[in-house]
């Protein structure tokens, strides 16, 4: 499963997918599971851009109701149920508390919105919303003493980057060829197929492949890739993308309890405060236009100030820049609906089909992590005239790797892991299970003592897991491990991260 395996097959693929974020991973899994011959290439690391820089939520998007996005919210709420069932190890329910303050949205509006949120998604298994007293939550709220009332409702949390990896693993198990650090160098239509050149981003080696159809899930680069694939389509035939940056900051834990806060801001936006990695609080997000991706996505000082100001209006003990322990930003590739307000641009997805010479290409604009699975089904529906599948929709029935247990049995599964490895630290095992589920047993194997886990890099990261990530999860650079496959980098000192990077690079050099 190494990321740099050469492409061995000379057979024509049914689908070549460009881009290894959540949408590409979802399409690859769904298509491969239907019996199609699938290849996916990603020029950098999987989930290396937007898909590892989200707010980590599986949610309908309560605020989208204000923009009349009823179909999107209903679909997302239905998908929330599916994801909680197929990924119970990396996703779980999360209760949200919205403090009520005068001068913002009135109570009747919030109650109406929450009532709709409880009912428009079909069969919902999570608890419904309710009005609550913040002084009766059983622990200090962390909020100003004069904020005493609010509302509570249900959504869910997910490890976004791991969701991508697990979908790719599942796709591979169903026969897909997955190529990390491999970019599309060129493509042209020829006699009813795509003739493509793939280039290894590390070695520069090139190889030709053919495909009957292409799916462009290049994220922030989707419009650029669309134009490369369809150069003869000019003007109105090309969809436009609006790049909107969402930034986050991470600070030491601000409040007790396992709930999250959704805070109304005076600009009518909302900001989340979410328990994160046990010891921290994740604060986000922003909606800021981004001109291009030439220098990647980076949070600005203005965005940091915005997020601090938004939460400090509520906190009993205000925080400042010195409290920020980490920060990250991602760029949402939204379909340009010509809205002047970045917050109002639709989060729904748009599929653009180009079918010159009966050689289709579908480009994916927009989308949310929550609806990635349904988006993948929509892509295959769009391509149905050109593909012959062995079965229909299936991806909401089969658990992702490591998650083949019922959501209600999560605690029981974790208890079994702790009993089996009784000499290992329970906190370490809890976090390992939260990344790998039942595959934690595959990683630990016969190890019963800390010494048998190999080197301890700090922050809960050990050699045995790193070896697994290299062998089975396409990890090729230190950051792949520290910030995407795991979040252990957040728990490590700068020196520990540096020492791990030296070891990791030497390890990979020996491998090659």
Please explain how this structure is put together.
29% of the residues lie in helices and 24% in strands. It has 512 residues and is α+β, with helices and mostly antiparallel strands. It has 3 domains: 13-50 and 162-240 and 347-386, FAD/NAD(P)-binding domain (3-Layer(bba) Sandwich), CATH 3.50.50; 93-157 and 242-336, D-Amino Acid Oxidase, subunit A, domain 2 (D-Amino Acid Oxidase, Chain A, domain 2); 407-511, Alpha-glycerophosphate oxidase, cap domain (Helicase, Ruva Protein, domain 3), CATH 1.10.8.870. Strands 3, 4, 5, 6, 11, 12, 13, 14, 15 and 16 form a 10-stranded mixed beta sheet that branches. Helix 1 links the parallel strand 1 (13-18) and strand 2 (38-41). Helix 1 packs across helix 7. It is globular and about 70 Å long.
CATH H-level superfamily of the largest domain: D-Amino Acid Oxidase, subunit A, domain 2
Helix fraction by DSSP (H/I, runs of at least 4): 25-40%
Strand fraction band?
15-25%
Low-confidence stretches: none
Structural class: alpha+beta
Q: Per CATH, what is the topology of the largest domain?
A: D-Amino Acid Oxidase, Chain A, domain 2
Spatial shape: globular
| E-strand count | 20
Number of helices: 13
Quick one: biggest sheet?
Answer: 10 strands, mixed
Mean pLDDT: 92
């Amino acid at each position: 499963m190494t990321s740099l395996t050469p492409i061995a097959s000379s057979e024509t693929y049914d689908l070549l997918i460009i881009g290894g974020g959540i949408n590409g991973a979802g399409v690859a899994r769904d298509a491969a599971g239907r019996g199609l011959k699938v290849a996916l290439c990603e020029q950098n690391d999987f989930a290396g851009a937007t898909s590892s820089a989200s707010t980590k939520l599986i949610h309908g998007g309560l605020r989208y109701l204000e923009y009349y996005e009823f179909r999107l919210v209903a679909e997302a709420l239905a998908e929330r149920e599916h994801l909680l069932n197929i990924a119970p190890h990396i996703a779980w329910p999360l209760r949200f508390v919205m403090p009520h303050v005068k001068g913002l949205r009135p109570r009747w509006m919030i109650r109406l919105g929450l009532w709709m949120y409880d009912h428009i998604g079909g069969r919902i298994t999570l608890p419904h919303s309710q009005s609550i007293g913040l002084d009766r939550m059983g622990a200090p709220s962390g909020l100003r003493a004069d904020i005493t009332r609010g509302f509570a409702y249900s959504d869910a949390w997910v490890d976004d980057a791991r969701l991508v990896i697990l979908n790719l693993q599942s796709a591979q198990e169903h026969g897909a060829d997955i190529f990390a650090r491999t970019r599309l160098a060129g493509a042209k239509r020829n006699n009813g197929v795509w003739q493509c050149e793939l280039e290894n981003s590390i070695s520069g080696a090139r190889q030709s492949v053919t495909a009957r159809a292409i799916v462009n899930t290049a994220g922030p680069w989707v419009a650029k890739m669309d134009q490369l694939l369809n150069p003869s389509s000019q003007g109105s035939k090309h969809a436009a993308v609006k790049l909107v940056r969402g930034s986050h900051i991470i600070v030491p834990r601000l409040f007790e309890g396992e709930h999250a806060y959704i805070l109304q801001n005076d600009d009518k936006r909302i900001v989340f405060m979410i328990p994160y990695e046990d010891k921290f609080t994740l604060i986000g997000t922003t909606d800021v236009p981004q001109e291009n991706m030439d220098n990647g996505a980076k949070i600005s000082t203005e965005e940091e100030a915005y997020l601090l100001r938004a939460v400090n209006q509520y906190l009993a003990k205000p925080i400042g820049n010195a409290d920020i322990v980490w920060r990250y930003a991602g760029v949402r590739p939204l379909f340009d609906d010509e809205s002047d307000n970045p917050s109002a641009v639709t989060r729904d997805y748009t599929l653009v089909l180009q079918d010159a010479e009966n050689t289709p290409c579908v480009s994916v604009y927009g989308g949310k992590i929550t609806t990635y699975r349904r988006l993948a089904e929509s892509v295959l529906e769009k391509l149905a005239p050109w593909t012959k599948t062995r079965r229909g929709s299936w991806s909401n029935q089969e658990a992702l790797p490591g998650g083949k247990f019922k959501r209600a049995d999560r605690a029981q599964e974790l208890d079994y892991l702790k009993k089996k490895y009784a000499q290992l630290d329970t906190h370490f095992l809890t976090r390992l299970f939260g990344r790998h589920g039942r595959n934690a047993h595959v990683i630990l194997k016969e190890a019963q003592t800390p010494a048998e886990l190999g080197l301890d890099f700090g922050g809960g990261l050990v050699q045995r897991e790193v070896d697994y990530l290299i062998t089975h999860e396409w990890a090729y650079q230190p950051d792949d491990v520290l910030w995407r496959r795991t979040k252990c980098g957040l728990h490590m000192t700068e020196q520990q991260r540096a020492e791990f990077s030296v070891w990791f690079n030497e390890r990979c050099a020996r491998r090659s």
